[in-house]
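queue> pop job 88
queue> type: inverse folding (structure -> sequence)
queue> payload:
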């Protein structure tokens, strides 16, 4: 049997194994990171950097960040003669990993894997990931939460019992923070999970891209902010945009280590009788200024995450940085200032999750881990005045159950609507996420405020929320089961 840990990332995937006590990575075209991207053209599937490269020529044949839709029954991509679901795309990426892993191991033994998924994934999203792994030819031993994998990569050798570990993961398109409690017998308990599923390295690329656009505007007066304003042909515009974005990402990574860098792109687009040559010096200070909104958002999320669940900074024993974008120095600086401790970041931040998965996958170790999980956002119902009444409060360990009593809002009301939402804004229901609802007909005929309607929320280990509403007097009731995904 061969053993492999797989970080199936939104932007990049990494596969790692432990060999003679050392980490070894599967290579994909000489790189240890496989871009989680797919392109389908003329009946042929390309994965990784080839797909990314071809995307500039065939943008409509390209699928990236499909992981954001994992487990969704609705999301499908129609390309040429085929339809792809998020599970199909994950399967294709895992197929490439499987093929390269077979080459790496040099035998035909089965490959047993541990695949990681975000902490907020529901059980159906995890099941879809496991299914993709199976279809790609792996024996899937376990689906492991990414922050737990990261913690394992650090804590494995020098684990002190009952440590609280705060994990900051800033990837390409997502930002997750998690507080874990690790106790003896390898028990991992999630105490808090928060973040933003629409914030990542890509947004920082855009900040640099915009600096580049204003440089061009000042230099020659050409405005590349839209195709129309650029007055370029669609092809020339999208080629220039793509080139600038690629350079923006490159320079962003350089600025994590250097204070400034130069960007030169020859023949960026047709200009006057020839071509425009782009040349610019970018400093880290100017980048941070341009990205100040994003920076503040990252910092505020970290700060509020503990406060929101009534935890304090002093409880945290160590902070771990994960994800390529956590290489940006401002994160380390902020963490040091806020937690009064240096974050652990000596390992390669892009590979940390895969390392932890590899340790878990390693079949030569017999121990198992258990994970206790919590509800990431409060769940409740809409009440009169467009308000939200939470029933299960975020941070609660599940499985769990809670009952609250509600009443009618006008006299002789016989029908009540139970509308289920997720979120934290009690004053404005519209700021919360709507999951679904039902009506109960046959409420006790009485003045407003008299009927007693019991609303019970029970959240099971598969992240299914069972909602039940019952009138105490008449006994009429209604119920609905909702699959909860915390990744909104
Ligand atoms: P994901 O978990 O989303 O698959 P990764 O953890 O691999 O993604 O992070 C990818 C992101 O990290 C990209 O936006 C990339 O530009 C960024 N990144 C990688 N290295 C650096 C660096 N040295 N400085 C800043 N950003 C970086
Ligand atoms: Mg990641």
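queue> result:
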């Amino acid at each position: 049997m061969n053993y492999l840990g797989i970080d199936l990332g939104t932007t990049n995937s990494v596969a790692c194994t432990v060999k003679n006590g050392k980490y070894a990575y599967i290579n994909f075209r000489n790189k240890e990171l496989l871009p989680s991207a797919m392109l389908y053209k003329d009946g042929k599937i390309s994965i990784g950097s080839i797909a990314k490269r071809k995307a500039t020529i065939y943008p409509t044949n390209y699928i990236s960040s499909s992981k954001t839709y994992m487990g969704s029954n609705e999301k499908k991509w129609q390309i040429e003669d085929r339809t792809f679901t998020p599970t199909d795309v994950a399967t294709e990426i895992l197929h490439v990993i499987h093929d390269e892993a077979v080459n790496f191991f040099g035998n035909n033994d089965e490959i047993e894997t541990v695949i990681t998924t975000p902490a907020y994934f529901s059980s159906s999203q995890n099941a879809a990931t496991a299914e993709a792994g199976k279809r790609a030819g792996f024996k899937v031993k376990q689906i492991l939460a990414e922050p737990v994998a990261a913690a394992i990569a650090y804590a494995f050798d020098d684990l002190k019992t009952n440590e609280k570990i705060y994990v900051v993961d800033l990837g390409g398109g997502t930002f997750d923070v998690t507080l874990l409690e690790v106790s003896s017998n390898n028990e991992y308990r999630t105490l808090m999970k928060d973040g933003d599923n629409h914030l990542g390295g890509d947004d920082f690329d855009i900040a640099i891209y915009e600096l580049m656009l204003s440089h061009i505007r000042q230099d020659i007066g050409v405005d590349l902010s839209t195709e129309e304003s650029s007055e370029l042909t669609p092809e020339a515009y999208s080629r220039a945009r793509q080139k600038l974005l690629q350079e923006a990402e490159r320079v962003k990574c350089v600025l994590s280590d250097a204070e400034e860098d130069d960007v030169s792109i020859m023949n960026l687009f047709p200009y006057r009788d020839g071509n425009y040559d782009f040349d610019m010096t970018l400093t880290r200070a100017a980048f941070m200024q341009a990205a100040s909104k994003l920076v503040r958002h990252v910092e505020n999320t970290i700060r509020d995450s503990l406060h929101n669940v009534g935890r304090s900074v002093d409880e945290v024993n160590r902070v771990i940085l994960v994800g390529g974008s956590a290489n940006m120095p401002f994160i380390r600086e902020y963490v040091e200032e806020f937690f009064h401790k240096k974050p652990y970041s000596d390992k390669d931040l892009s590979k940390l999750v895969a390392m932890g998965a590899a340790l878990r996958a390693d079949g030569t170790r017999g121990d198992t881990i258990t994970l206790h999980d919590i509800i990431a956002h409060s769940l409740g119902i809409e009440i009169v005045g467009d308000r939200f009444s939470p029933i299960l409060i975020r941070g609660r360990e599940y499985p769990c159950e809670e009952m609250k009593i509600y009443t009618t809002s006008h006299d002789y009301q016989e029908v009540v609507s139970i509308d289920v939402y997720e979120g934290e804004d009690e004053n404005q229901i519209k700021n919360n996420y709507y999951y679904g609802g039902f009506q109960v007909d046959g409420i006790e005929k009485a003045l407003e405020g008299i009927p007693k309607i019991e609303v019970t929320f029970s959240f099971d280990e598969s992240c299914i929320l069972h909602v039940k509403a019952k009138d105490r007097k008449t006994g009429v009731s209604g119920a609905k089961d909702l699959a909860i995904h915390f990744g909104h």
